[in-house]
Amino acid sequence: MIGIGRTLKQAVTRAVVGARWFSGNANVLLRSNTLPPFSEFAVEHVEPAMKSLVDDVASDLASLESSISSDGYSPSWSYVEELQRCTQKLSDSMGMVSHLQAVQNSDALREAHEKSIPLFMQTIIQTNQSLPLLQLYEDLASKCWDALDRPQQRIVESNIRSMKLGGVALEGDEQARYNEIVVELAQLSAQFGNNVIDATKSWGKEIVNKEDLAGMPASALSMAAAAAGAEDPEAGPWKLSLEDTLVVEVLKHAANRSLREETYKAYVARASDTNEDVFSKILELKQEQAELLGFRNYADLSLESKMAENVQAVVGLLEKMRKVAYPSAKRELEALEIFAKNVQKDDGFSLKLWDVSYWSERQREELFSYSEEELRPYFSLDSVLQGMFSLTKSMFGVEIVETNSFREEKVQLWHKDCRFYSVVAPDTKEVLASFYLDPFSRPAEKSGGAWMGICRQRSKLAGTLPVAYLVCNGSPPVGDKPSLMTLREVTTLFHEFGHGLQHMLTRVGYEGASGIANVEFDAVEIPSQFMENWCYHKQTVDKFARHYETGETIPVETFEKICSARKHNGGINILRQLFYSRLDIALHTSEYDIAGGAEGAYRLSKTISEQNYSVFAKIEEDKSLCAFSHIFAGGYAAGYYSYLWAEVMAADAFASFEEGGLDNEDEIQRIGQKFRSTILEMGGGEHPAEVYKTFRGRAPSIDALLRHRGLSDD
Ligand code: ZN
């Protein structure tokens, strides 16, 4: 659940919100700014600016509504532009505050940000439930359709849809009940998330004997020692918590089997004492919300605005993959058990859930021995960036240059490590777009993970170019060494840059469908996952992965191991994703019996697992639904399948480059131009199934994904 959650939120709110032009104001959030003036920002600006901007939008919206309701009204696109004009400033200012909240957090800023969210939400509800605006969009659809271009038509369609899903068509008690549900769901999902955080912190296992932690890497020991307040990570004591990173380390590396078992069982039972009621209530309210809006269930509601046509299409794809993944996973598991038996010289050993990661890791080490650490010297940030930019130039024909100015203004950065780049047309030197890069981790003030955020959109109306935030949490430079990245950090950078390319190379000039705006949720991960594939292509990687001291490339044998390790236990890995995707859909359809509450949900989880969505029977302690934050606190309800759905297309798109020859520069350029003119340029201006077909000449196939994941023979 990386940046896209944030990005989508920005895109959605951007489409409805933002305000008027001031000049010379000391409050930077009330000024019209080409780019955010980060060095002049003060936390004290937030509250007064938000109040004032929200008021402005409310009064502008009221006058827009009355002009739509007046006698002289005749439907035209200019009203949509007017709405955009009156919400732009609020959108830009809120975007700047949200961005700073994520990269330069402080208690004061968090408080100011939290206070401004309800105000902002109020504007969204007002806009979503405005009957005159609905009238406008319906008139545009019925009376002006042929005069609109395709992106305009898509914007009209999606606005009508999101207003209907936002309760505009409901009346009286029903609308009041709908609004109540929306508020209650927002509170419940925040509570769900907080309960998970609390449960994660509250479990703690003290360890005094270092032998109990045998096998654990030094970095994990340091974390556990710090948690116990110990000064020396070697001497202890240590404290284990249920934080993801630490649990993963224990399950992968702790030789102590009973410690793994205890940790595993505590982890899958996380928040079960607090979240059972919360998630059952969420499921109940979502069903009620769906019925109020005329849907059979929440899955139907969720899919209304996604690329997948309906529940059957999603389940169909999951089933198709499961049929391949399940036998593979079974075979992998048998091989893993034999491996564990041999190493331990114990024929009676039987593999349990808490053994899978541990033995899988030992098997991986034996088969493809290389460590993340030994790769770091090949991946210095600057050479990785140069390599990524040169790949971008050969595929998409644009140059990327570092600069400190934008439209003759000096660019202000929020931290000294940040950089600013422009995307330039090579022949004319015209600047097409720009982006900020914030590469390094700063745990004290910056959120974890990585994301692409929107700073400015391409807009014909406002005359703006797209500007993106690319935020990563890579390893900072230590001493006089450059920043040396892990392979995971490199693929993450490529991933976010892929999102950035779709935002920046868009040709759509309307905010409502420019870049990633209006791209269906289950299609938005195509360019990002597509870009990751290049990190496993030797010739591409050789261009930038040079040892920072010797200049050597990664040895061929090591590179082959990296590529094979990517496919290692591919069946087990994909089956886990398939299980959660299938369960998420089931919970939001009539497969789940609301009256059964949490117990009913656990029974459903067991049933799905027994339909060959899992190679292990569920253990009684497994209440992992109580920590399934993606769907209960993160906006992925009946949408968790989106990762796999988009990965199918990302892999199939990369396969078209494979078919052309990954070493054939002319083909890379030819297919790259096609990728650019379709997937990257059309943004949300056309349905993703159409966009994909225009690129590939056919509907997506799952073969490439299965091959990349090691689930087919070649
Ligand atoms: Zn992403």
Could you walk me through the main structural features you see in this protein, from its secondary elements to its overall organization?
The radius of gyration is 26 Å and the shape is globular. The protein has a 5-stranded mixed β-sheet with strand order 3-6-7-9-8, with helices on both faces. The protein has a two-stranded antiparallel sheet with strand order 1-2. A hairpin with a 6-residue loop joins strand 6 and strand 7. Helix 24 runs antiparallel to helix 25 (665-682). The protein has 714 residues and is an alpha+beta fold. The chain has helices spanning 4-16, 46-69, 77-103, 107-128, 131-143, 150-165, 172-202, 218-227, 244-253, 257-268, 275-292, 298-304, 311-344, 356-367, 372-375, 381-396, 487-504, 526-532, 538-544, 556-567, 570-587, 597-613, 629-633, 642-660, 665-682, 688-696, 703-708, and strands at 205-207, 238-240, 399-402, 405-406, 409-410, 419-424, 431-440, 451-456, 467-474.
Task: Characterize this entry briefly.
This protein is an alpha+beta fold. The protein contains 27 helices and 9 strands.
